[in-house]
Fold Diaminopimelate aminotransferase.
Amino acid sequence: MSNLERISKEIENLQDEMVETLVELIKIPAISPDYGYEGEYDKAQKLLEIIKDWPFDRVEVYNAPDERAKNGVRPSILAYYYGEKGEESPRLWILTHIDVVPPGDLSKWTVTEPFKPVVKDGKVYGRGSEDNGQSLVASLYAVKAMMNLGIRPKRTVILAFVSDEETGSKYGVEWLMKEHPELFRKDDLVLVPDGGNEDGTFIEVAEKSILWLRVKVRGRQVHASMPDKGLNAHRVALDFAYHLDRVLHEKYGERDELFDPPESTFEPTMVKNPADSPNIAPGEHEVVFDCRILPRYSIDDILKDAERLAEEIKEKYRKEFNGKVLPEIEFEVLQRMDAPEPTDPNSEIVLLLKEAIRRLRGKEAKVGGIGGGTFAAYFRKLGIPAVVWATLDETAHQPNEYAWIKNMVNDAKVMAALALL
């Protein structure tokens, strides 16, 4: 029996422990202070408790300072299991994130409450089960199976459990790369198991640029029965948002079949205004656009188009109140990630992953691009080839989020194969 076969069998034997670990991690709501929560500290401590007696060669904790978070830090954990040549072995990173998104509308959670996980029909339900708990646990037990059997892989495995993926990575991967560049090598191989498809045959090698743009409109609040006495910021914002949506889709509408979906997307998402009564014409209004932009287009060009349109809209609704000209339209960039060069489809990490999938599943994987942002983009910016892959139903961010137990087990086998091949 080959080492891969022995490890695959051991992973299967560890299935119940894997489920138990996933359940324990889901119970802890590791949600960003951006959403009014405490961050990832408690979940990181739980993870350290789980692995404290495992024979990792090195475990390091890196605390990004954030005064809003519990104990003022956003922790990331790196756990090293050396390859057959010790510290001289080539290295494979497997990066997962410990933060999750807020639960959303609790009334839509019909299987269980978000942080009270249940195991049902071969699935584990709960917030963060699929995003990113399934892959986090799979990476852990890919390594534990090797540990249990006393097998050293060809490549040193670095398991990275990182904070702040869901709100831009300022306190996660981005912080690590800025403050600790010595951690990363140009010849590293990187797997980010945070996207994929239902049968695990899609390997992401490219991502779109990301722009989260908040538009703030200020008018003059007034009683709704006397709209001429003020300036309804809601009406101005609706007009602006409609025309911005139209301009962006028309001007930046080309397709690239490498990506799914193949076109740039511009989605109005969050809306806010202070009116708390039907008879108030509000003086403020905010709308946020989530833009996922094909790499051929410039984010700067899109921002310039938004600014030009804002000037047109301001002139259209122009009023003066006590010497102050309204409306005002301001922009705030909440997140920006300019798309890096794609990972070469013929790079070592892509070819290894294809071979692992072929051996373990008898299937041929395909490569492509996505609109979602992942850790992989940060490595590509450093010139380090990175791929995104997992076997997922894509229930992330949805009510009744779940992870298939079989996917968790089988993905762990593929991760182990990457270290061995």
